Amino acid sequence: MKLEVKDIFKSFGETEVLHGISFEVESGKALGFLGRNGAGKTTTIRILMNLFKANAGEILLDGKKFVASEHQIGYLPEERGLYPKKKVLEQVIYFGQLRGLTKKEAKENSIHWLKKLGVEKYSNKKLETLSKGNQQKVQLAQTFVCNPDIVILDEPFSGLDPVNSQVLKEIIREQIREDNIVIFSSHQMNYIEEFCENIALINEGELVLKGNLKNIKRKYGNNRLTISLIGLSSLELEDLFAHKLSGLAKVVDNKEKYLVIELEKDKTKNDLLNEMVQLGLDIERFSTYEPTLEDIFVKKVGEK
Ligand SMILES: Nc1ncnc2c1ncn2[C@@H]1O[C@H](COP(=O)(O)OP(=O)(O)OP(=O)(O)O)[C@@H](O)[C@H]1O
């Protein structure tokens, strides 16, 4: 399956908040949907879920108009929507039935997911009596109870301790392996790096970067190296690049333990290495630079 979000515009009153957002998600390849606070992620997801109407643009599934109500979508919203006073099992069953399951199916699935998430012992407790992390797990059970083929997760790890995070990681991997469409929105870049083959980054309602994460990293790492020397601090090394090595490369980041440098246009790694050897420098580290997603995020949308 391939879900295509095409040229979506959305205004609230006079204010346009989405100015033509486009991206694609293929089943089995999770999409990391990123952006700063207020960028427009939730609004886009709500349009996808048909909770908001777009002013223009379309959403297609395998080339045909996507109708949210015709699909089982597992949505974990940013603002959690459970009933504090209702019993845990009761409400997961209720959500299953809302998604079109029979009472029997809803009950079976609810028990299955509550067990899988390790909260079945709270089945007959009121939700409000559970800890924050356990409430989050009940919300996750509600997300998966309908056996979704489209899964949209907004900050799914929020409130989970490291052990529970592992449980959820395995569930997300399973969803991807089962060839579901998975959209994953988070400000925690390490999770995006772990699960998502592709990313879409939006800023102030516009798409600023999309594509295969590995390719994007390669492109951003192009012509960049990480370097450190034995017996020289990173500041002293910076000084070296400002003077003796200035025609070969420039410093783009000082990470304290090492520098990230960018080769000048007509220079190669070997040119720089030769020169450093000629200068008798004691090289500790000299390797190609792979930026983190966080580096790329900050570079693209950090300062405007
Ligand atoms: N119902 C609404 N009425 C008016 N403006 C809205 C409404 N919902 C969202 N907005 C505005 O649309 C813009 C995008 O908000 P949105 O919630 O989509 O951002 P986001 O990327 O999900 O942010 P965050 O990471 O903080 O959750 C913001 O300027 C927000 O104030």
Automatic annotation (TrEMBL):
GO terms for molecular function: ATP binding; ATP hydrolysis activity. SUPFAM superfamilies: P-loop containing nucleoside triphosphate hydrolases. Keywords: ATP-binding, Nucleotide-binding, Transport. Belongs to the ABC transporter superfamily. It comes from the Bacteria. It comes from Proteinivorax hydrogeniformans. It holds the Pfam family DrrA1-3_C. PANTHER family: ABC TRANSPORTER ATP-BINDING PROTEIN, ABC TRANSPORTER ATP-BINDING PROTEIN NATA. Residues 3-229 form the ABC transporter domain. This is ATP-binding cassette domain-containing protein. PROSITE patterns: ABC_TRANSPORTER_1, ABC_TRANSPORTER_2.
